[in-house]
């Protein structure tokens, strides 16, 4: 799923990939953990120059 505006990728290995578990994603979205904390703790793996989502998170604040 593409969640940030940019080039659309349709086959092969995408150039910018972010992987995390559901709990971490919800914590990021709600501002319970920062992007940098999650990456530093190994809860998020991000590769590519457009894979840094720090400016897009949190989606809402609790």
What is the topological layout?
Blueprint: E1 17-20, H1 22-30, H2 35-40, E2 44-47
Antiparallel strand pairs: 1-2
Quick tags:
62 residues, alpha+beta, 2 helices, 2 strands, 24% helix, globular
Indicate the low-confidence ranges by residue numbers: none
Q: Note the main sheet.
A: 2 strands, antiparallel
* Integer-rounded radius of gyration: 12 Å
**Amount of helix:** 10-25%
Helix tally? 2
Mean pLDDT: 84
Q: Topology as H/E string?
A: EHHE
Regarding quaternary structure, what we see is single chain
What is the count of β-strands? 2
Strand order of the largest sheet: 1-2
In percent terms, what proportion of residues is strand?
5-15%
General shape: globular
* N-to-C CA distance: 25 Å
